[in-house]
Design goal:
The protein is an alpha/beta fold. It has 6 helices and 11 strands.
């Protein structure tokens, strides 16, 4: 987020990705706070599909939360309204469509407003989400927010699980948290080990 506060120098499209539990949402909320603290105005948003904590709330696992608007509403704002913001912050960006990512890039390129996105890169099958794939293709800066597997190695995958173990097939989007997902290293994802036995 280093350069995002310096609006006017050159707005950029940022993508911060990480596995579940890597503090992406906490980072999004801290970015929003940093703007507020220096008297700047940020617009915090997330895609409508994420309703785990309500339609208009961004909430981290450590309890930080703030009201937000939907990404859909943010993108339908008049250009003059968007230009009043010093930054657009998008949480759970993996749920965005390719078209929405392109619209966010237009905000950067034509309105000179930085856009800072946080989200997962891949799903439980290690397939790219549509929004993340587009960001990997066009973002100005891409950075990983790291976390670790239960074994201590870097977590590179997220596994969906149930009472029978790791789930390998199913719909891409199933909302959940620690009750359905765990971040693992690639080896333990392959082996299906969600915890030390």
């Amino acid at each position: 987020m280093e350069g995002a506060l310096n609006r006017g120098i050159m707005a950029k499209l940022y993508f911060y990705y990480g596995q579940m539990g890597s503090s992406k949402t906490a980072n999004a909320l801290m970015t929003d706070f940093n703007y507020e603290e220096v008297g700047k105005k940020a617009l915090l948003c997330k895609p409508l599909v994420d309703i785990r904590f309500g339609e208009n709330v961004v909430k981290s696992r450590i309890g930080l939360e703030k009201k937000c608007v939907s990404l859909e509403n943010a993108l339908s704002m008049p250009k003059d309204e968007i230009k009043k913001y010093d930054c657009i912050i998008v949480d759970e960006v993996q749920f965005a469509t390719k078209k929405q990512i392109d619209e966010l890039s237009d905000i950067v390129d034509f309105l000179d407003v930085p856009v800072v996105c946080y989200g997962l890169r891949t799903d439980f099958r290690n397939e790219l989400f549509e929004g993340s794939e587009r960001l990997i293709a066009i973002a100005d800066e891409i950075k990983e927010v790291k976390t670790v597997c239960w074994c201590g190695k870097k977590a590179t995958t997220v596994a969906r699980y149930n009472e029978n173990g790791i789930v390998r097939e199913g719909k891409q989007v199933v909302l959940g948290a620690n009750d359905k997902y765990v971040s693992l290293c690639r080896k333990h994802h392959k082996e299906g080990k969600i915890k030390k036995t």
